[in-house]
Amino acid sequence: MRRTVLGLALACHTGPTVVVTALSGAVAAAVGAPAWTLVVVVLSVLLGQLSIGWSNDWIDAPRDLAVGRRDKPVVRGLVGVGTLRGAAVGAGLAGGVLPFVLGPAAGAAHLVVVVSGWLYNARLKSTPWSWAPYAAAFGALPAFVVLALPGAARPAAWVVVVGALLGVGAHLANVLPDLDDDAATGVRGLPHLLGRRADGVLAPVLLAAGAATAVLASDGPPGLGVVLVGVSAVLVGAVAGSVGLVRPTSRLPFTLAMVVAALCVVALVASGDAAVS
């Protein structure tokens, strides 16, 4: 039993699940969500991300076994494919239904997030359209948080743009370390078609653009702290892009892209009041 629990914990893609859930909670708090709304938002996003993570490892199990991915719990024998499938479906159903208690618009927005994640895992990751589910899911996620607010709150257009830029940038950066294993098992998404050098340059550029958009969208002149966050994101993105050009096999662009993503999140949260139109 303990091995299964450990396998499920590892197979949910713990890092991204925690980060996305925490980001959603931070944005909800930044836009003034009541306590009940905040709890439902966080729980809904957590269930959705668990479902997406588990479905990824379930669907990818044959490929992971073929290349001996020892970082995957299925390959290590910690959890079975059937268990992952059941957990993914259960969490997906719960995460798809729960947000509707916050209203039909909020429920529909979160459904876009979950369905996009499943579409990526099941089919689109191996096509030139692999970026589209990330753009849709990350664009819909902050929109869901705003639509969950009581009343007639609507997300500002820039919030969706920032989310989409963050999503596509994160997609390109996330795939960088796995390009060789993916190629060996026939995965040919947009990052694979672009190549390691282009990925290493484009990922931080998109993430930095997201941070800059969040900074410029602030009501009135942005504060010094927000400006510093935006400038830092652009500078780190420039370094990551330069390394990607000079050393296309380096893992440093991926690490720096994650730093830019974190700065982009900070800028988005800091501009929370402007997210509601």
TrEMBL record:
The chain crosses the membrane at residues 34-54, 74-94, 100-119, 131-150, 156-177, 198-217, 223-245, 252-271. One of its GO terms (molecular function) is transferase activity, transferring alkyl or aryl (other than methyl) groups. It comes from Actinotalea ferrariae CF5-4. The keyword Lipoprotein does not apply. Its main location: membrane. This is Ubiquinone biosynthesis protein UbiA. It is a multi-pass membrane protein. Keywords: Membrane, Transmembrane, Transmembrane helix, Ubiquinone. InterPro entries: UbiA_prenyltransferase (IPR000537), UbiA_sf (IPR044878). The keyword Membrane applies. One of its GO terms (cellular component) is membrane. It is found in: Membrane. It holds the Pfam family UbiA.
